[in-house]
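User: I'm writing a short methods note and want a consistent example. For Metallothionein, I'll paste the sequence; you return only the structure tokens, no commentary, since I'll be parsing the reply automatically.
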Amino acid sequence: MEATVEMVKCACSDCVCVVGTVKAIERDGRLYCSDACADHHPEGAGCHHAGCECHG
Ligand SMILES: [Zn+2]
Ligand SMILES: [Zn+2]
Ligand SMILES: [Zn+2]
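Assistant:
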């Protein structure tokens, strides 16, 4: 049996991260790579992933 990991892009528009659906954070039916993205970067915090500059 093959383990299929589905990858989706984070729903944050500035975010370039791709996250596995099992690890993604779901908020309002959208999938995000991190709490920061899911909360729309309340304090301007980034998602802390390498190469990604999203921070609201
Ligand atoms: Zn990101
Ligand atoms: Zn993100
Ligand atoms: Zn983001």
